[in-house]
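Exam prep: given the inputs below (a chain plus iron/sulfur cluster), describe the expected output before reading on.
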Amino acid sequence: MSEISRSLPGLFPDELEQLVVSWGEPAYRGRQIFRWIQRDGVLDPSGMTDLPSQLRDRLESRRSEEVRRLRSIDGLTSKLLLQLHDGQQIEVVEMKTAPADEGGRKTICVSTQAGCAMGCVFCVTGQFGFARNLEAGEIVEQVLRFNMPREPVSNVVFMGMGEPLANYDETLRAIRLLTHPDGLRLGARRITLSTSGLVPQMRRLADEGLQIGLAVSLHAARDELRSSLMPVNRRWPIAEVIAAADHYVARTGRRVSFEYTLMAGVNDSDEQAGDLAGLLHGRLCHVNLIPLNPSEDASLHASNTQRALAFEARLRHAGIAATIRVNRGRDILAACGQLRLSEKKRREHVLPLPLGEGC
Ligand code: SAH
Ligand code: SF4
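Solution:
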């Protein structure tokens, strides 16, 4: 992609400098624009008050529009549905552990694609299919929209819609923008990227010299089951995914997380917990057990609490660090793809608005 055709939040200071110099403006204006966008979160050029008005008028302001913003009843989870310049809709989720004045963390879960081509059977986004990759600027903008001076973003997780490693270059550019010293200055260790297991890109990421966290969506410890849940497993089976995760640990020294969505009667038996423990034995890792959020496939259900606890206990007993992730924001359809689906149905007059609407 030519740098000039990118939206402003996707450009580095030197690229913005080149842009303004090509218009006959001094180079430092480029750095000013970078700080306005990346540090102060001002996406509308008319708000960049120390720029001359003819320059502000010249800066294109292609950016997304808010379609809907929902907040959970406890106020800690918010969800934003954004419409991109070409009409595509994507979701961003904000999760706070506690209000900022109580020292809480603020994590933003960003999307990297409109839709997803991987087709995981339990995932609403996967069932939509793939529309297009997001540009780095469209990814960065999702974070900036939630960054407040008194409540800055502390963590970013690439766990929204899409497979980040299938949009490798734009995802990496977004990470480099978010960690830029003149911008948000997010620490790389505060960024986690989740992948369904694209092995070549996992290896490439390991060799980037970044300190970001890696989460790998496993969901099954045997190939036959994993292939039935995640078609990507037919291309890169479990052994290759684990080897790539080992390479990531070796190169970065960071522990890898494995995500395992618990589905009643599908992958949640004691025997399957034993298989998982055997697979991960001796590895520097952590297992995140995720209760299934409602999906399009009516035959899939979340495991009950008792089963989830038994599964977790079995892993811990085998020496594998494991935690059950608390599903938050259910009242605002916070799981991946759900809000976009509800908006579509609402437009078709099928669904009422979800709870929490109107904040
Ligand atoms: N595409 C990447 C990142 C986005 S999905 C990936 O698959 O890893 C983020 C996480 O949510 C993944 O672990 C994914 O498997 C999980 N997920 C998707 N649909 C889910 C559902 N209905 N319930 C619970 N977890 C789900
Ligand atoms: Fe894509 Fe991840 Fe959903 Fe699978 S779980 S379809 S990889 S977004």
